[in-house]
Amino acid sequence: MSDVHRLDTTSASSGRGTVFAAWERFVQGEDHVRGVRPEVVVSWHRCREQYRVDPHLTEAPLAAEHRDHTLEQLVILTELGGLAGAMAREVEGRNGIVTVTDATGRILATWGDAATVARAADANLATWSCWSEAGAGTNGMGTALETHGPVLIRGAEHWCQAFHSWACAGIAVRDVVTREPIAVLNVSCWRTPLPDATDRWLSRAVTQTQTTLKGRARDSAAELIAAFVQAKGRATDAVAAVDAAGSVVIADERASPLMGVPAEVPAVEPAIRWRTSLPDLIRVAKYASERAARNSDWVGSTQIFTHLADEPVSVTIRPVFFSGQLAGHLMFLGASGDAQPLPTLAPTLPPNTPMRRVVALREDRMVLLRPREVSFAESDGNDVWLFTEQGRLRSATPGLDKLTNELADAGFLRVHRRYVVNLSRVREIERGSKGELSLVMDSQTNDVVPVSRRSTPAVRDALGL
């Protein structure tokens, strides 16, 4: 399993002082600290800069209002509950508890001896509390939602000091098609090392639940293929079936060259489905999945460019459901006369435009921007705002760190904790009385972006100053 590898659950007492000292410096604003595992430092950055979690928080917040789970999610949560109950018997007498959370980090159930459950409740490590990183900082449950594979967080590696007495290990069970998290299984021990068998328990849980998910994915693919065969018999346009992540399950002879996949070759297994050569089509499929999940009657249309034509191709997307759950979509490529046109999901772009796009959101539409259309980006809490030629748009990419990584090779540079700028759009540079820099951007409003002291050398090098 790609999501499973061995955890070192042994005590790290020799490094506790080093980690705590690094935590203190990082909380005070330092960026580069030693003696801390890289995955923990990355999480600390998210907590401090993206989520702005108070490191002196004494208890996790209550979860947001209850959100219904899909049938597939309920199946997995039920399986994890059975596994968690068995694991809880193994941690009795070790000050341990076992928890199961949903994809939002909301604890759904807790198992363990009464004394430890009561102690955990003091920090809201209890049912209906929120342990996402945005809610409770670095921890086994929330950090597992942010990464692939098992996560081990011990002592001062927790972002919130109130949780430094705990060691925890968690792993997210992810949808085998979309790779989005469904749930997290977590083991936590108070002032006691985690059991050596923790990694084996987590590995077994992932293996068992993913077997269930793969079976459901195969059934969904079979439903997509059946819908494809039926649609192909009466369609006048090229037709293909894609899963919820935009991977191609099957395409006909006309759709296959447009999408860059074999014709009439079904790909039932989720791990070996065809990857289309049209990234914009994948984005459209993912957008359609979000809409269809909220409204089963939703049908959408847009236009995209392919490698085989100078003019855009119309695409109509029709969701396909299996046992009440979204299986994927039928995509009709061509001038569809049997579907009512809906607002376009993305602006049309010329065929010679580089495939890299910056994805923004405007109400219920997805806007695909060329990087040069973005002047700079600013973080505002959990949101990132793009300042573009079309105005201020919310980025579809969550978090400034992730957006910075995506655009690093497109001429963008992080110049401040809250700002990333397009270096090609810098018009003027202002110097303050103490040597600080500000960048005047090439925009209609001549926006001014501050440069932090830590970023000043990198900005000078990048601009040749």
TrEMBL record:
Molecular function terms from GO: DNA binding
Keywords: DNA-binding
Pfam families: LytTR
Superkingdom classification of source: Bacteria
Domain (HTH LytTR-type) ranges: 363-465
Protein name as it appears in the record: LytTR family transcriptional regulator DNA-binding domain-containing protein
Organism: Pseudonocardia alaniniphila
